[in-house]
Specification:
Length: about 600
Amino acid sequence: MNQVKPINIGITGTENSGRKSLNVQYVMNYFGADDYIRDFLNDNMQRNVLIDGKPVLIELFFIEEHEYRQGWENLYRMMDIFVIMVSITRREDLKEIPELMRKAKFYKILNKLSDSSVILVGNKIDLEFERQIATQELEEIARENGILFIEISTKTRTNVDECFEITKIRRKRQKKKRSGKIFKSKEIPPFPKLPEPFPRPKLEVLPSTYQDDFKSLLKNERFSDVELCFAEKKNEPQSLYLHRFVLCSRNGVFKQLIEKYENQSEDLEEFSEKIFLKMEKKELNQENENKKENIGNLEKRIKIYVDYAYFPFYLMIKFIYCGIIEDEMMKDVEIARQIQTISDLFEVKNLSLVTKELLEKEDQDEKKAERMKISDWKREKIESSELDQIRNCYSNLLKSHLYSDFTILLMEGNTKQAVKTHLGLLSQRCDYFKSMIQLKMKEVIENQVVLTNIGMESLLFILEYIYCDRFVAPSVELAVKEGNKKFIWESNSKMLELLIASDYLQVLRLNQLCQVNLSRTLDHELIPQALQVSKSYGAKFLMDYCYWEMGRNYPKFEKMKNFKKLKKEDQKKVKELRFPPKEYDDYKKKYDKKK
């Protein structure tokens, strides 16, 4: 079978639009790292296809003007097809299209090519939630310039083969130039001018306060059940008020020490010979009776007397609580030595490594303390490792209910379900419980609260966030790809329930994370319901997103029963945000079929 003349296709476009990926995906059916792609692109890519029953060799040329320098002009002259690629996630790419179009059209005329030899390609439709260029805008550019247009994803291979169907179309049109009905431009009115699309709503999520909340807990004496007493020194505090649930979940030495003391273990003195001078229990009820402070169910506080300076010990405890390396550790050699001694004694490994490195540098340098520093990357690595340990410790603490002092009772019908928690931690991480304590409500005195409008699954999710600062939402990407509506609906419904629960318990950052997650995963059929929920619970970002999403898919939503049940003011708001405008849809219905 005779092979016809090869077809040369030049792929040009904006930076990071996926030009290399398109080459490799079409020929090798591969999407991966840039280094791997670069190996393929050392030579021109080739692929054999059948057109009208005949084998045709297609050669793909990646045109990078600044690399080819003068040679790119010769490449342009060789081309039969031009592919101009842009990324739909970069608004700036629109500004580069005219220049790319000018060169392609110039060489199209020079090479005596047809209009179907230039195609505008919008890439990265797999990142729809990051879209900054509307499909209608690219369609308008293609229509004005008399070229073809398609949107693709080189990552998921969506429309990649369809993009290169242009080669077949071109050959058929060369053979049958007069086949089909041709409409003259005077028969069709000008394309309606599209306004700027309404921008996608944005939400700046509050930064995490996780470590700061534990710093605040360290300063809160109210829920302290452990007191460290130091030797008297001028200008230094003599006591440090701590929390058993933190010490025992975060540090093995403190855990053994406190448990051996409470169990009156015989080997306590042998175990703790170097750690403390003495331990005792202090009655709290009588002491706090005159102050009229609600201290939960704390009746006794363990007092531990130590023969160490207050400040180094405080810095070590602060590291145990929130995993932060304080600058004060690096300002004084003597303090660094003391911290290393006690961190070795209490087996705080990461802190011991830091002080050891600081002191080694100090010993090698005459200026001593002035040169005591730790590299930023190592500091960040240690703090990140410690933060992961903190999260895992408190996750285990939540599941084990050890040292709990507060009970949350969930009412579901006539049954009650109890969840054991720690009021000291809740008071720092949740405004609902913080207000309860400030107002000295009876629930604080009774050490329990009854909740009737929150489900167990939502409560456990919120507690996991409070204890561990983790937001692990169900992934719906695979479900979307497989068309698993049931899973998408279930995950969206759970997220809406969590949104309501986080609003009720006043966990603001979690509420924002729920809104962002819903804006990326919400099924269209649930959007009218989500709009009503967002309006009822003050979720402004989610509300704006629902209006925006319905506006840009107005013809689809207009037919939905849920949309028709919305209030008239909501329907009016959606119409105001409609994009593309009604005139565009009317034009498309009337003339696109002809074309």
